[in-house]
Design a protein that fits this description.
Length: 249
Amino acid sequence: MYRIAVSGKGGTGKTTISGLIVKSLLDGGIKPILAVDADPAGCLAPVLGAKPEVTLGDIREMTRDSKDLPKSQFVEMSVQQAVWEGEGFDLISMGRPEGPGCYCFVNSLLRDSLERLSNSYQAMVIDCEAGMEHLSRRTAGRVDLLVLVSDLSARGIRAAKEMINIARKLDNVPRETRFILNCTREGEPPELLANKINEAGFSDYLTAVYDPGIVNMELRGESFLKIGEDSPVLMVVREMLDDYFGEGE
Ligand SMILES: Nc1ncnc2c1ncn2[C@@H]1O[C@H](COP(=O)(O)OP(=O)(O)OP(=O)(O)O)[C@@H](O)[C@H]1O
Ligand SMILES: [Mg+2]
């Protein structure tokens, strides 16, 4: 099972890239996939045409208050219900983070349950919020491929670098990392920015152009699984995955 996480500064294209990773894996015959919407703002579901009704955040609250079944049984059952089933992929939404109070026990039940669930998939694609703590606390497992997305800003690059530092601190260093500079236009990145990317240690970065087709699809509420083969951003995601699987196998 491949665990692919996508992270980076807010608004840089994490959800878009996550959706296109799911599409590319499916096209490449890697299925079933578990797509994980780990951002409380929860945008991966609409990008993939999914409509989950229950989030893991809801289950966390319900479990804490449940009196009937043993909590472990309750979590196992509820997590099954939270899985939205699509064609070739399922989606689960993390929902809100925990409120005040102690959730350690419930969180560990959730983590175990998610771990068991993920074993039935060939790949897991996690759209993270801009922070890896979330990822590590909730899903526990190792990350095989961390995809960092940045816009053309020094802050975007710093945020990407910070993700790696956080991963190190959490002792969850991804096996491989890729860096995508998203929404570039002709002549970009400017030299100064390219230097910053190199200095941050991402010299083999990929660039994905600003594509009005993506904006239109989002505005029309269309699933990115239906994106045209000629989409330049899809092509970059394919290139990245071909390179990753080519090396990894
Ligand atoms: N290459 C691209 N070309 C044009 N528009 C893009 C591109 N990539 C992303 N977008 C658009 O930019 C916006 C932000 O993208 P997205 O939601 O994927 O970012 P995000 O990092 O997930 O944001 P957030 O941090 O809010 O979750 C969206 O409207 C998306 O359609
Ligand atoms: Mg997002």
